[in-house]
Amino acid sequence: MADKKKRRRTESDADPESDPLPFKSKLKPDSVILQSLKALAAEYAPSTSSSAAKPLTLSDLFLSDACREVTDLPLSSVQSAIESLVLNLTHSILSGQGFSFSVPSRSSANQLYVPELDRIVLKDKSSLRPYANVSTVRKTTITARILQLIHQLCLKNIHVTKRDLFYTDVKLFQDQTQSDTVLDDVSCILGCTRSSLNVIAAEKGVVVGRLIFSDNGDMIDCTKMGMGGKAIPPNIDRVGDMQSDALFILLVEKDAAYIRLAEDRFYNRFPCIIVTAKGQPDVATRLFLRKMKMELNLPVLALVDSDPYGLKILSVYGCGSKNMSYDSANLTTPDIKWLGIRPSDLDKYNIPEQCRLPMTELDIKTGKDLLEEDFVKKNPGWVEELNLMVKTKQKAEIQALSSFGFQYLSEVYLPLKLQQRDWL
Amino acid sequence: MADKKKRRRTESDADPESDPLPFKSKLKPDSVILQSLKALAAEYAPSTSSSAAKPLTLSDLFLSDACREVTDLPLSSVQSAIESLVLNLTHSILSGQGFSFSVPSRSSANQLYVPELDRIVLKDKSSLRPYANVSTVRKTTITARILQLIHQLCLKNIHVTKRDLFYTDVKLFQDQTQSDTVLDDVSCILGCTRSSLNVIAAEKGVVVGRLIFSDNGDMIDCTKMGMGGKAIPPNIDRVGDMQSDALFILLVEKDAAYIRLAEDRFYNRFPCIIVTAKGQPDVATRLFLRKMKMELNLPVLALVDSDPYGLKILSVYGCGSKNMSYDSANLTTPDIKWLGIRPSDLDKYNIPEQCRLPMTELDIKTGKDLLEEDFVKKNPGWVEELNLMVKTKQKAEIQALSSFGFQYLSEVYLPLKLQQRDWL
């Protein structure tokens, strides 16, 4: 018997395609897995866990004076905020005091990780940016110009990219980093998100599965988007009316895995919404994921490569990137679960040695640095997995599962993960 | 009067946003422009130009023996091609002659630009890849393995990425360039396109506007895709049923310009289909563009940056990239017109000096190299524009038009271009 088993494994190594799929026998009927997923979704529904559903805010923690966050504001509020700011400046000039902007500091010294919120936020330090000062006159002028351009966007109610903004006054801005930086300053000054300013990032994410939503007035049914899926809109403020009968959201790092799941219409076997930013998370995808999570109250399960960058990508979705920490509340999706590929999966699923890659020195350093990050430390399961990765010095891509057959991901790995509720 | 004009221009430089848009007064009513566009579309309709509509083939030029191209084959034909290939190999082995693959050469020495086709094709050189030879045994084994994997894809009728393919046998392939290279060989051996092999590239393009098509069985109406648009499917063989009342296809290099046109629903003012690969053209977008052009018989107008890379991108859509020249017939879209931004537009539209960028040494070299390319030389208008670019040493992005206002592109520049039929 043991011999037989061994022989089969050897055959399977030699030609996994034509052999029975490893661990497939462990799979229970779909109805059993679905039952468990329904129970999971119920845990996330607002009625059963009303306390957990209402997210903590800075003021709940008595931090609203000490910390600063921006909020989504309607266009009319942005417009009047700019107008009253300019009115104040005019008064200041007329009273002979000249003018200056008070700009919140976005430096790392002014950043704070708040464990209760599981986000990075800004502390309350700000600095004055006076016009009548040789060292700040240029930046003050740029700030005034950006405010004026944003005001025009409000009047016209259109969206532009950062690059468009830069090109409206190249003579003044000189290079795009200057207009970009001041744009973030203006967000902080007005206390609103960058998307509220109608300045958008190019989109690169796609979504498919059990979701209906409106994009700029058009109703989109993501079960009818073929294999290509729906491109995630760059402007979240025109996204609305989300409806779904999904039981969870599957966040996928790479497009190859996304394509596999879209072609196999995985969302029809296990009702879910599949979303990917095709690598590094962009702002549009992060906003879209958060909006789904908040409106639909669904668990978010992440499928990323088993390497430090997979975990880093998970962290950007989960608790934000450092250079946009002032906007962390609107950009981050709390409580994302690490489904896979986890370092412990490599042995658990017998990923063949040749599909595991040795970690480079830089990989190992990145992994060790991550172990020092608050968002990892607060999750003992993640620490354990990351320690295992750094110890074994092995990484693996999601595609490594293809060594058991092209559809192993959708036919065995994911269903088994869901059945066993195997996430951290 | 002259003074007044001058004053206005100065004001416009100082604050283009609040001023009348330059050249807007030249615009005729939309109905006049539409009339001209309808006439243009009629020129492209198959009935009025049946000779031009039927594209030339290698055999029309008596080159089918001397040159090689691959064609789209249905999955069943790919499957039987593999089976008869393997049958021949088996006969060869059984008759004691061992076995070898005859592999068409894809080196640049074996490539030929055919002006009548306006494409790069492969000449007829091929080489033997025998199993019983130390220098080729590995590559022969890889070739056999890839053939076997493709055969499995045929049986299952699923699509995978190159990365998936690599991971099915890392031990043999060692690194992905090896499986990728042999995959291209297998295309040439079987005489079919890579998409016929069901091996697909990750998609990154989006499409919006007056197009209805089916993606994997789902009907997609691209006028109802909001601002985000529809992600172009990675597998062209599941795309079909294209219908459109558009008068032209607008091919856009960058997503910022795409977003502007999508938000302004430019396609409702001038019926068109707007498509972008967000930078470098990917295979899926190239296949999609070609399919639209062939099925809908519409003119394709390209909006790219005014720099050597803009023209290079245009050339990849138009006549192919060198490393996939064996597949040029299926990947290229003939007769793409260069709408803008052209070097001569910089002065014609008074693009402010500060929005023009100096070309680097490398830019200038790339520009000069392009002047030697056949696909540029055959179009005297392009040569003239490119000469102007290299002479003035100035380049400009599409976004440079934003200096006249965020919507200058959609409200003045493009309508005026269409009105004046200003393309090359």
- Distance between the amino and carboxyl termini of chain A: 35 Å
Largest interface: A-B, 63 and 63 residues
Contiguous runs where pLDDT drops below 50 for at least 5 residues of chain A: 1-18, 48-52
What would the CATH topology of the largest domain in chain A be? Dna Topoisomerase Vi A Subunit, Chain: A, domain 2
Strand order of the largest sheet of chain A: 11-8-14-13-15-16
How much is the average pLDDT of chain A?
87
What's the Cα radius of gyration of chain A?
Answer: 24 Å
* Oligomer state of the chains in this structure: homodimer
The description of the largest β-sheet of chain A is: 6 strands, mixed
- Tally of strands of chain A: 18
Q: In percent, how helical is the residue content of chain A?
A: 40-55%
Question: Which class of secondary structure composition applies to the elements of chain A?
Answer: alpha/beta
The percentage of residues in β strands of chain A lies in: 15-25%
Number of helices of chain A: 18
CATH class of the largest domain in chain A: Alpha Beta
Number of domains of chain A: 2
Shape by Cα distribution of chain A: elongated
CATH architecture of the largest domain in chain A, please? 3-Layer(aba) Sandwich
Task: Spell out the blueprint of helices and strands.
2 copies of one chain form a homodimer.
Chain A: H1 2-14, H2 30-44, H3 50-53, E1 67-68, H4 75-94, E2 100-104, E3 111-114, E4 119-123, E5 126-130, H5 137-156, E6 160-161, H6 162-167, H7 170-173, H8 176-190, E7 199-200, E8 206-209, E9 212-215, E10 218-221, E11 230-231, E12 239-243, E13 248-252, H9 255-263, H10 266-269, E14 272-276, H11 283-296, E15 300-303, H12 308-319, H13 328-331, E16 336-340, H14 343-348, E17 357-358, H15 361-371, H16 374-377, H17 380-392, E18 394-395, H18 408-419
Parallel strand pairs in A: 6-7, 13-14, 13-15, 15-16
Antiparallel strand pairs in A: 1-4, 2-5, 3-4, 8-11, 8-14, 9-10, 9-12, 17-18
Helix pairs in contact in A: 4-5, 5-8, 12-15, 15-17
